[in-house]
Amino acid sequence: xxxxxxxxxxxxxxxxxxxxxxxxxxxxxxxxxxxxxxxxxxxxxxxxxxxxxxxxxxxxxxxxxxxxxxxxxxxxxxxxxxxxxxxxxxxxxxxxxxxxxxxxxxxxxxxxxxxxxxxxxxxxxxxxxxxxxxxxxxxxxxxxxxxxxxxxxxxxxxxxxxxxxxxxxxxxxxxxxxxxxxxxxxxxxxxxxxxxxxxxxxxxxxxxxxxxxxxxxxxxxxxxxxxxxxxxxxxxxxxxxxxxxxxxxxxxxxxxxxxxxxxxxxxxxxxxxxxxxxxxxxxxxxxxxxxxxxxxxxxxxxxxxxxxxxxxxxxxxxxxxxx
Length: 323
Description:
The protein is of the alpha/beta class. The protein has helices spanning 4-15, 57-72, 86-95, 105-112, 122-134, 156-162, 167-176, 196-203, 219-225, 240-243, 267-272, 275-286, 289-300, 306-316, and strands at 34-35, 48-52, 76-80, 100-104, 138-140, 150-155, 183-186, 212-215, 231-235, 246-249, 261-266, 320-321.
């Protein structure tokens, strides 16, 4: 492992390559870790790998998980997590400023590959993204069960009282009794074609404007939890779903795009370091919505540091060990 001063200098130099790069860690990551009994048998000793992520909790946690696993395999890891904006992190990967980051199939398909029609089947969506991005010199490794897509959520007592478990049932309730259809939505979701207008069209219901309450990012959860609305727009992996004991409503017509997460690297980088896939496979196998909800809740609800959350999870899973 490189020393603290060397590591920070490398991080700072790497950050200069990115426009608007944002790093939030207040200290160097404690990457002096060993491979655990459940780690892949791989040796990346002496390989310098720059790990990036976007700038929200889930991405930062996954970025740190990746760093610990690569470090345990012997890699000289440089932390470039917390890059501001999806386009900036994508460009960093394409240009070679970072070597690996985790991306979402739906984001790549719609935002980067400019496709207008998402594919409802998550496996087919992944294969389509993987094939298309090969032309951009990028390799998608295997995808995880974690699917950070949109959904509606309700307070558990409301869902039980109304007997609602699917979005089709929400539509039937709203058509039967419009006064029940009070929705808390984020600003952008209100007008996006893959947001509320599209949901209403796909499920065949209409909500009067007065029944829509608009909030900034994240405030929907608190509003839903305190009963300000019956239904709220949420992200399926958010830790506040657990903390507030909310019930996710099934998108039974699969209107929302699939957002499965997968590690992405450049083709030339993977050709030189094929063992990176082996190292990350144990994490791909473990990441699902429940796991991420629990990890995110530790950060967003309990106030834990994402570095420590990532390290402790991998120790518990036997993927890394502390010296």
